[in-house]
Amino acid sequence: MFVRSSGERAAFAFAVAVETDPARTGPEGKDPGPGGRPPILTPGDAQQMLAHLAADLKSMLHDIRKCRLATAGAVFDQCQLLRPGAPVFSALARLADSAATDGGSPGLIAVGSGDNGMPDAVLEPDRRIPRGLLQLIPLIVEGPRELLEDLAQEMEHRFLAEGQLSAHTASWLEAVFGYGVAHARFMTMTDLNAMLRLQLEHFGYLPLWELVDAALTERQAALELTTDRGGHYRWLAGSVWITFESFDHWSNHGLGQATEAQGDTLPRGYAEWSRELRRYTSTLSAHAIPLQFELPEGCQGEVVDNFLFEEAPLSDDPENLAAITEHSWPDLGIVAITAQTAGSLRHYYPLAPQGLNDIHEALRELDLTGDGVAFPGRIEYSRTNRRLRAAAFE
To answer: Do residues 120 and 85 touch, judged by C-beta distance below 8 A?
Structure first.
């Protein structure tokens, strides 16, 4: 992937993909533990890392000696490198340009962390993304445009078969980052995107990859997708548009209308639909893809910031009902919150992690009826009208 290709010079982005071994740590035992992230390297360690990587590259690609290599002394999740506009690589290219005082001559430029962190905040690993087994080290190769075009083609063809790092370099990465390395190799961004497709397709999320790919390739044409669970997504004008269905709409007019209202069958189906939607939204957000929520025709609701608000009639039997009911599901958490007022029920659905905080703020402004807060540990609904209801206290 070219992050710059104009005039006489160009810059091509690629990466080192490190498959970590969770069963062991590196020689110095620096592993920060589950969910933690390896350290960001100092400028000196980053320069030494690049020297190791450059030696491996030069043994495979002779013409790379005529180019400039740059890297950041950190490891990233693939979600952070595979983002629209390639912000990590673009920032690396800018810093490499500003650090190169010798015109266009070959050289090694490594960006490390100083007292105030990385010189560009974009090059800080996103700590909101839990550390996975696959970690990536970003690199760019910069040089004459014609040479880079040929070199990029060679990298696309050779990395897959010959891109494995030397044992010496892999061992050095173990020592400096403090985790066990099961496998490490050079990969182009095309390789990484293809690997992401295989991962998501394996788990039944191929439409999710199609949306990510549309954003990464800046697809101009609209794209409309429907999943097996009835999720509806559109790629349009630089954003993914997500159709959100409330429980009331899903169970009466959506995919759930064919589901019997017996036991937990109906709420289980909605929970599975919600789980898929959350997987899509969390993954798309991790790739920094803009999201927009919309409602299906006939859904009586309104999207407000990070949540959906929907008004519904009061329950048939208003006696002994909670003022606030948290509808939840195992392994999913809160699905919706119902507030009982004098004239109606008000349902709130979080659309993002911040959504729960915003909902709580909205609840403070209501004149509630009923007593207390109910936590039934399930989705409380009426089997008669297939709608959410307030929970009753016994």
So the answer is: no
| Predicted model pTM | 0.90
Q: Give the whole-angstrom CA distance, residue 324 versus residue 345.
A: 10
The SS3 call for residue 230 is: coil
- Could you tell me which of 190, 139, 142, 144 has the C-alpha nearest to residue 165? 139
The pLDDT tens digits of the residues spanning 123-178 come to: 999 988 888 889 999 999 999 999 999 999 999 999 988 999 999 999 999 999 98
Torsion of CA 219, 220, 224, 228, to 10 degrees: 0
Gyration radius from the chain CA atoms: 26
pLDDT digits (tens, 9 = 90+) for 180-200: 899 999 999 999 999 999 999
Backbone angles phi, psi at 346, to 5 degrees: -125, 120
C-alpha to C-alpha distance for 351 and 262, rounded to whole angstroms: 27
B/e letters for 6-15, b = 16+ CB within 10 Å, e = fewer, are eeebbbbbbb
Beta pairing partners, 265: none
- Cβ–Cβ under 8 Å, residues 357 and 316: no
Q: Are 141 and 9 in contact (CB under 8 A)?
A: no
What is the C-alpha separation between 370 and 357, in angstroms, rounded?
A: 22
Residues 154 and 64 sit within 8 Å (Cβ to Cβ) = no
